[in-house]
Structure formats: C-alpha cells, structure tokens
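Worked example 2:
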Amino acid sequence: MAFDEGLAQRIRENLEGQPAISERRMFGGLAFMARGYMAVGVSGESLMARVGPAAYADALRQPGARPMDFTGKPMKGYVFFDPEGLADDAVLARWVAMCLAFVATLPPR
C-alpha cells in the first residue's frame, strides 16, 4: 500500500532535532521509530499514532480519529487520524509530541 508522502514529510519536520529517530516500512506504510518503538507513522493518507492506553479513549473523541485496526481487532493505545483531523500543522505537532512522550515512558530496548 502506498502512503501519503506529504504527511510523512510533515512528520519528519516535526521530528527534526529528536534523537535516534529512524524510519521503517511497517503496517503497509511508513513508521517513525523512537527508542526502537513505533511512535507515529503513515498508512495510506492517515496518521498512525501510538498515544498509549491512558490517552486512547480521549484520542478517539478527536476529529478524524478512529481505532487502528488491521486484523479485525483494534490495537489498544493506537489510533488512526484521517486527513480532515490533521489539516492544522499545530494539531499534527501535538499528536507527534504526545506519541513521543508516550514512547519515552516505555522500557529501554
């Protein structure tokens, strides 16, 4: 599956200056890894956001949000944001920052 390269570039710009960020093809799209964990990514035209279990319910109430579901079972702590929820750069920046903050709480790999 192809992914939105424009969204990927917007994410890259938000990740500038962050230590040890890498990119990996994952989930049929592109994942941005922090500390060895997927933090955010792009699948089709949607943002894949690893918000964590505590922020999951609130994230799903936001514009353009839906459960991240590849297998018929939603992945708890992961949310898709469709393009209409990401038009504002400040909104995208907030989600990227939230995902990085969550990944920072995970044990070292």
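Strands lie at 21-26, 29-34, 37-43, 46-50, 65-67, 78-81. The chain has one domain: 5-103.
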